User: What shape does this take?
Amino acid sequence: QPVEYLSISEAAEVADRGKDTIRGWIRDGSLTAHQDASGRWLIKRSSLDDFLRGKSLGKGKSPVKPELSGG
Assistant: This one.
């Protein structure tokens, strides 16, 4: 199944938020995204869905598991 990627504008529509909010989530590491060769941000639809599901449950970023943080 092909992976669906969204632009910041498309992600803003899906999330019912502003584009600046989406950029903020990317900037602070809450939402995973990458830039293509032309510098456009691309967000995996599944990543956005997972992030929004976490937000709707009242959670922000997932805590780092102790075994992954080296201590």
